[in-house]
Automatic annotation (TrEMBL):
It holds the Pfam family Peptidase_M1. Its EC number is 3.4.11.2. GO terms for biological process: proteolysis. GO terms for molecular function: alanyl aminopeptidase activity; metallopeptidase activity; zinc ion binding. Residues 26-193 form the Aminopeptidase N-like N-terminal domain. This is Aminopeptidase N. Belongs to the peptidase M1 family.
Amino acid sequence: MRTEQPKTIYLKDYEQPDYWISETHLTFDLHDDHALVHSRLSVQLNADKHGQALPALVLDGQNLELLSVALDDQTLESSDYQVDAHSLRLQPASASFDLAVTTRIKPRENTALEGLYQSGAMFCTQCEAEGFRKITYYLDRPDVMSRFTTTVIAERGDYPVLLSNGNPVASGEHEGGRHWVTWEDPFPKPAYLFALVAGDLCLIQDSFTTMSGREIDLRIYVEPENREQCAHAMDSLKRSMRWDEEVYGREYDLDIFMIVAVNDFNMGAMENKGLNIFNSSCVLAHADTATDLAFQRVEAVVAHEYFHNWSGNRVTCRDWFQLSLKEGFTVLRDSQFSADMNSETVNRIEGVTFLRANQFAEDAGPMAHPVRPDSFIEISNFYTLTVYEKGAEVVRMLHTLLGAEGFRKGTDLYFDRHDGQAVTCDDFVKALEDANGADFTQFKRWYSQAGTPRLAVEGTYDASARTFSLLFRQSCPPTPGQSEKKPQVIPVRMALLDAQGQEMPLQLSDESRAEGTERVLAVTEAEQIFTFTGVAEEPLPSLLRGFSAPVKMTYPYSRDDRVFLAKHDPDGFNRWEASQALAVEILQGLVGIHRAGRPLMLDQRLLDVYRTLLADSTLDPAMVAEMLRLPSEAYLVELADVADIDAIHYVRDWVRQELAVALEAEMWPLYQALNDQVPYSPSAAAVARRSLKNTLLGYLMLCPSGKALDICVRQFVEANNMTDRQAALVALVNSSHEEQKRAALSDFAERWQSFPLVMDQWFSIQAAASQPGALQRVQELMQHPAFSMRNPNKIRSLIGAFANQNLVNFHLADGSGYRFLADRILQLDPLNPQIAARLLTPLTRWRKYDEARQALMKAELSRIIAAENLSPDVYEVVSKSLV
Ligand code: 0A1
Ligand code: ZN
């Protein structure tokens, strides 16, 4: 139990800072077991707030050893200031002064990976959100923007590369083999965008000519053994830079743009000004070692961080409650980019699948919060799917409502108006309103109300009046602290289909003539009717196309309607959606039948849809692969009130096997045709073919004929890329062919043992395999030399994969999975509280399970909260989950 209750911080308490810092001069003296940080700040009173009175200056600081303080070059006595565990407080004598502070820190002992730390042999930083205060005393808040000049001094032999933000302006040698480099960043920035790197890194270099003809020096720094794995990241960077010019009119501003890959990193990457620091998993990609999915992730994350240079850095957040200002917008930007680079429909399907299985679950759980939260204890806990993914959906809806052109006018005004400022989500929406003469007052409830809205739709056709009415009813379930919800603006992109599946002309009752065949209806009321006139025959509506709003929509479609839509809807996304919904309905029905102890029978309509897909050679193979994929266990759990995970798992596996057996004859020739042994290519078309081929392999391996085993083993051995090799390994690991499985796993480990990212895949494939005994396997794997509790990627790929992806084993009725996870969280919390808090997610979902499991899960949460010296990170998640 904690003795001191951590403090809750509220948005409503926001105040401007008492002081500004115009200039920040830093010198880092890096040594093996410590670093000396000299800071010299030019500080000015915030006169708007205080007139002439001089309040105390209170700087944030944590885990710092304070060595000296000087005010305008006068060294202060320790009686002149107060230091506690979180701050340094002193009384200025004038409205403008220089403050010089020296601190000593211990980067090697920094296992939380926040502030300045060591990853392997290199020094690096992570300052977002509040890591800078672990480097030196500072006003560590995003509305304090300052010009940084940074000098890094270190041993030349071990640290030939010394980097920070901006441009290098001077360098030199010191006695005894030490050297130094000074970097100057001309753009004022908050401390969370500060970065420093020192190491023995190799450089991959390229260049980019901007729209105004400036030549930008592009640099990727990695450890020498990874040199061959940077081409895709570099290419993605150049395409991102061009895309941001073309689509948003945004040009890069500094002369250098740098990316550094580090192995120990809490998140995916960080958008530090001019010096992005990346988890190596989001930079490195080579066909031999990375799957197509990993390639796509690298492309998306490189783009995301690059796009932050405008949406995040040039215009930043006033306070951390506004986090979605930069994250929601930037996630939308990176997904638009990925859609443009790949298939728009497939990209949207992947995004929606992820959102519904994960963010919807967060929105229905104890940590549910609005896109702009009202309060937090630890801001790190609010880098969530709601702030990122739902936040992106909110901006996407604004895009849908304004249209591409209106949206672009709005973002131009936003960037123009707020360049160099720290602003709020309201400022963002205001710019979109002002540029378009729009009123988003009601729309802004998306920022303040948590929970996933329900949208129940009904359609009525009046044959004599030739009208078709759509009745929309919206509601939103209560979430923590919000019992009542007001109606939100829900854009519904839709069409009406005739009996041939053609889109019909659309005319609303208050319109004089029909116009177009697709509309966006803005549902704004709790209950609202839209009536279409001149409707020649009873239509089938195609609703919420492209998932135009993050809601749970229902419409009383029959299964035959869904089959029709899955085959005929001209909108590709909604074809997929219809096949998903059909599969969900069938699986849910079978779960009930299985629980009642009755025999299972597969609705032939699902087979019919799948058979048609397999026969249609005109379809995009990636799209076919998406449609052949059954809804995940996680999504089925999310949809259930109380999830019977054993039944869900059993039924889903059973349906997969039925499908495989029934379609084996159709699947074989298609697999063979796709398995054409052509040389590897990373093109979108080749990725699509691999995706379908490997989906088929997964099904074929379920057939009792056993015909697929040899082919799968051959694919594993002979593959000329990691996508095919890994797909074969997954199929083997999830099969009952023990001998082949063991051989493949040990062959794989031996071959890739010195590639940490490949070993991550090896860990997670085993951790996610649903056969009995998974927990013991995971415990054994924790002893493997490639595993480490100090490396977030390893924790995610072994412990995270087990708890989040292996639902039957994690939820074993004896509670062993829960106990194991709680033990790991307690073990990790003193080392890395951010990752420990993130590992809690599956335990926070206890309301979804039966009473016995609920009791077991809550018992583990209670055991965690009773522990001594819990971090605020873990304390916040556990205490909110137990309410
Ligand atoms: N801003 C980064 C990701 C990031 C988030 C949180 C962090 O610490 C709590 C660190 C980095 C991005 O969106 O890419
Ligand atoms: Zn981001």
